[in-house]
Write a structure and sequence with these properties.
Rossmann fold, 15 strands, 13 helices, globular, 2 domains, nine-stranded mixed sheet
Length: about 400
């Protein structure tokens, strides 16, 4: 089968979507399917095809990624994708690249799978103008509806996606497919003590501190304001805990200014956007992972961190698939408020090195407890059924 995946963002952009797409592509190719990814990049002035990926020129804009494809009607790109002779169109975004996928699917009469990774709610909450926020949110809501209305199959890694579809005024089934990660790549055992010290030095972290890490897009729904406020109120410099934030986004400057306001600059470090290839080393240089978002649907970085042996602190949310992977006191803790969060943060930071080594082994082992078959195998079944359904409609 030939699959074309449309995603506005891809590595080196740090986001759950880019990680999800990479893992899916690798899994599909292992199953002997051919995959072409279409994405955008601010680092190219013309469409570039390399290693199974078409990167289209992008321009900076005010969406959650900070950029979008300049021209989704570039005929050379469209013709190249057509020559690939796709059987299925798989869209992972409701931005410009997503519309390119819809346009192409309509032209060549191929089924569309739309995977919901996020939602328009509060996407522009950082805007100083409430009117601008409302207008942009309304536009984003329409984009979301367009994808739902034109998809043959809708999938997500979180049950809450069904609620988002309903909130958008649509009655559509959402097929739940839990996220997987590349455990062979994200493995703390591949890092040495020397490489960990080098990475900590590169990131500006103390060699003997306990480091909590978050990785992903810095947007409103990630709720990092909660983490920073909790640190300011309940953690002191004497606790020897540092918080590393990896990634970039619409909230970056606000979060930095909040750190200054809360006077926790010396405890919080911003790594910015980094190459996804070094994320295993970054996770291995940390001691725990923090997940604080409210409305996010998935967290690939969560799974990556567990694969690297990091116990996780996750906000209580029974709708999240990742919530059900946490076994309190085994591979992390579930918290409900600032006090719980700070207590567990201190508890994990007090672990000595010999205990930490054992915990890493136990935590990594839990990633294999994720139920069901692999993500790619489940998608192959969805693709096959979608193609069959489209053919039946064609002959009716």
């Amino acid at each position: 089968m030939r699959i074309v995946i449309f995603t506005e963002v891809l590595a080196p952009y740090i986001s759950g979507i880019s990680s999800y797409v990479e893992v899916l592509k690798k899994g599909l190719e292992k199953l002997n399917h051919r995959v072409l990814i279409v994405t955008s990049s601010v680092h190219t002035k013309k469409p570039v095809f390399k290693n199974g990926v078409i990167r289209c020129p992008a321009r900076k804009c005010g969406n959650k990624y900070g950029y979008e494809c300049k021209n989704i009607n570039d005929q050379k790109t469209i013709e190249f994708i057509k020559s690939f002779q796709p059987d299925i169109i798989h869209i992972h975004t409701d931005t410009k690249i997503g519309y390119m996928g819809l346009y192409l699917a309509d032209k060549i009469n191929k089924p569309v799978v739309f995977t919901i990774h996020d939602y328009y709610v509060d996407r522009f909450a950082s805007s100083k103008s409430k009117m601008v926020w409302n207008i942009k949110t309304m536009i984003e809501k329409q984009h979301f509806k367009d994808m739902i209305d034109n998809a043959d199959v809708i999938t997500s890694s979180c049950r809450r996606a069904s609620m988002f579809v309903k909130r958008a005024g649509r009655k559509r089934k959402v097929t739940l497919i839990p996220s997987n990660t590349d455990t062979s790549r994200f493995d703390y055992r591949k890092s040495t003590e020397n490489s960990i010290l080098k990475m900590r030095k590169k990131l500006g972290l103390a060699p003997d501190s306990s480091v909590a890490v978050f990785a992903g897009e810095l947007t409103v729904e990630k709720n990092l304001e909660f983490v920073l406020t909790a640190i300011a109120r309940h953690i002191s410099p004497y606790d020897n805990i540092q918080f590393l934030i990896v990634g970039d986004g619409t909230e970056t400057e606000y979060l930095k200014s909040l750190c200054r306001k809360l006077r926790i600059n010396g405890m919080v470090f911003f790594a910015g956007s980094v190459a996804h290839s070094i994320m295993p080393e970054i996770y291995s240089a940390c001691n725990m992972y923090v997940c604080s978002y409210d409305d996010g649907l998935m967290s690939m970085s969560f799974a990556e961190a567990i694969a690297c042996g990091l116990p996780v602190l996750i906000k209580e949310d029974k709708e999240k698939f990742v919530y059900h992977m946490i076994k309190n006191g085994v591979n992390g803790f579930v918290y409900t408020n600032e006090e719980d969060f700070a207590e567990y943060l201190k508890k994990l930071s007090d672990i000595d090195e010999s205990q930490r080594s054992k915990i890493r082994h136990v935590v990594r082992h839990t990633i294999s407890d994720a139920p069901g078959k692999s993500m790619s195998e489940k998608y192959v079944k969805i693709y096959t059924n979608a193609v069959k359904a489209r053919r039946l409609r064609h002959y009716q």
